[in-house]
């Protein structure tokens, strides 16, 4: 039985209402400044609020596409209950959380992005009935809306279940009732694991790792070929990214006066103004930091005469991200050696992009780019030829380091759970989107190369759509050729 409300017991009003509703009581801060909630204030906060239900909502832009994706999922696993969670908030420190990003599988199938959501496909007849389980509006009877750290007066209004049903084209129910229902459920079940511990626990005796992995793999492979909505979103992401690169070039003098952080902050502003966020930690690597593939500390100096390797992408409001890299001369002009290395990477990228076409093996673009780089390394006397020997032994990898690209979509490294035979050993099809990003990296402590090479890193990366007759460079709005890069920078800097 709940305790009597007293000034010394601010939680009792919440516990009373929670007990009556069969819910967990709302948690309060241990060191809050108010000692309690009076009966009068509790009663006052329950009334006098306008009806804010939204009645004229239209379905989200991708509602037809998400319905088609659910239909494909239903056809793949007939007669089985399928559970796809969005995930929960993660604590950053004490009572603050990291910004929430729904699981890609959940967002791909629903278009919804709110924490604690779960999509359930219940087998029915020849197919499935879909329900999206969400937190309803904050309760104004038990005070949760103003006393809970996740109440609407603290973090903002949630959609009602009726509103959610209209937006996503899926009947919506209260997620707080789902775990109990799943514990009682019978029949075969699959779940996308690792996002919602409560849902995983409710199904622990009903699922197997092997069956769940099949579900995860299917949803990863479903994203290999993008629909028209997805291609449009990726183009939006790239277009915003182009503008973000332009922003950076315009403030390189301020970066020189401060650090790489100025570059990171400048690009982030564009990402937040035009999109949801950056699609991954921006790599703002000046000087020898360009030789560290994932340099995201971004706390080093930016010096005239050095190169800046900027690898960054805007993520749209629907989670599709660009992934673009340019290596820019901080002072606007490549030195002779910088240009020689840059042009070799450019030629390798040209060969890689030319190999992207329907019917080609996925590996072809990587092999084409690596061959060009190996030829240059032999030509420069950095590795002993012939080229075929270098490629067979992988000797070029000391300076090329990474693969030449990856699938792109709602994850920057999209479709990662796909089977090898469907991805790296697969065949390119129209609608696939991948990066082509060769690079050369001469580490500052590499004694096998001439001293003047050391500390120079170059990568050029573009986002390539496979089309029916070849490919389209979605990021063609950014110049790539060394002379064009110099002209572009000069024009932006006036």
Walk me through this protein's architecture:
The chain is α+β, with helices and mostly antiparallel strands and 494 residues long. It is built from 18 helices and 17 strands. The strands form six sheets. A five-stranded mixed beta sheet has the order 6-5-4-1-7. Strands 9-10-12 form a three-stranded antiparallel beta sheet, covered by helices on one side. A hairpin with a 2-residue loop joins strand 16 and strand 17. Helix 11 packs antiparallel against helix 13 and helix 14 packs antiparallel against helix 15.
Features:
494 residues, alpha+beta, 5-stranded mixed β-sheet, 3-stranded antiparallel β-sheet, 17 strands, globular, disordered N terminus, protease
Biggest sheet, spatial arrangement of strands = 6-5-4-1-7
What percent of the residues sit in helical stretches (DSSP H or I)? 25-40%
| Total beta strand runs | 17
Strand content: 5-15%
Rg to the nearest angstrom?
Answer: 27 Å
Number of helices: 18
Largest sheet, strands/sense/barrel: 5 strands, mixed
**What structural class results from the helix and strand content?**
alpha+beta
Mean pLDDT: 94
End-to-end distance? 73 Å
Silhouette: globular
Cofactor: Mn(2+)
Keywords: Aminopeptidase, Hydrolase, Manganese, Metal-binding, Protease
Catalytic activity: Release of any N-terminal amino acid, including proline, that is linked to proline, even from a dipeptide or tripeptide
Biased composition (Acidic residues): 13-22
Tell me briefly what this model is.
By secondary structure, this protein is an alpha+beta fold. It is 37% helix and 15% strand.
């Amino acid at each position: 039985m709940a305790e009597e409300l007293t000034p010394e017991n601010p939680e009792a009003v919440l516990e009373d209402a929670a007990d009556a509703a069969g819910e967990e009581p709302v948690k309060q801060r241990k060191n809050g400044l108010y000692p309690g909630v009076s009966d009068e204030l509790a009663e006052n906060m329950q009334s006098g609020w306008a009806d804010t239900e939204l009645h004229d909502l239209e379905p989200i832009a991708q509602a037809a596409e998400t319905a088609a994706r659910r239909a494909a999922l239903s056809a793949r696993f007939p007669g089985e209950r399928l559970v796809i969670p969005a995930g929960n908030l993660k604590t950053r420190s004490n009572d603050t959380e990291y910004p929430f990003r729904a699981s890609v599988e959940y967002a791909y199938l629903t278009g919804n992005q709110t924490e604690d959501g779960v999509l359930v496909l219940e087998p029915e007849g020849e197919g499935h009935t879909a329900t999206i389980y969400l937190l309803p509006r904050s309760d104004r009877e038990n005070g949760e809306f103003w006393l809970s750290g996740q109440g609407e007066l603290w973090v903002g209004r949630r959609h009602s279940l009726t509103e959610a049903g209209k937006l996503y084209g899926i009947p919506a129910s209260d997620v707080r009732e789902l775990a109990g229902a799943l514990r009682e459920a019978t029949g075969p079940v699959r779940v996308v694991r690792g996002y919602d511990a409560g849902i995983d626990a409710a199904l622990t005796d009903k699922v197997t790792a092997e069956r769940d992995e099949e579900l995860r793999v299917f949803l990863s492979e479903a994203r290999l070929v993008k629909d028209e909505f997805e291609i449009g979103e990726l183009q939006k992401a790239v277009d915003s990214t182009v503008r973000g690169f332009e922003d950076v070039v315009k403030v390189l003098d301020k970066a020189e006066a401060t650090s790489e952080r100025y570059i990171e902050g400048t690009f982030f502003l564009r990402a937040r103004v035009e999109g949801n966020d950056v699609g991954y930690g921006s790599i703002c690597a000046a000087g020898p930091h360009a030789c560290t593939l994932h340099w995201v500390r971004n706390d080093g100096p930016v010096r005239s005469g050095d190169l800046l390797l900027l690898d960054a992408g805007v993520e749209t409001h629907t989670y599709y991200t660009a992934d673009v890299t340019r290596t820019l001369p901080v002072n606007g002009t490549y030195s002779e050696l910088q240009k020689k290395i840059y042009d070799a990477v450019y030629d390798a990228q040209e060969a890689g992009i030319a190999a992207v076409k329907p019917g080609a093996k996925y590996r072809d673009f990587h092999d084409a780019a690596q061959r060009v780089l190996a030829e240059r390394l032999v030509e420069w006397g950095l590795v002993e030829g012939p080229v075929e020997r270098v490629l067979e032994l992988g000797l070029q990898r000391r300076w090329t380091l990474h693969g030449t690209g990856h699938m792109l979509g709602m994850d920057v490294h999209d479709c990662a759970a796909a089977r090898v035979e469907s991805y790296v050993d697969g065949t390119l099809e129209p609608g696939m989107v991948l990066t082509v990003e060769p690079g050369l990296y001469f580490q500052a402590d590499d004694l096998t190369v001439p001293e003047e090479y050391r500390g120079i890193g170059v990568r050029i990366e573009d986002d390539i759509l496979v089309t029916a007759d070849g490919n389209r460079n979605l990021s063609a709005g950014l110049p790539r050729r060394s002379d064009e890069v110099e002209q572009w920078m000069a024009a932006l800097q006036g």
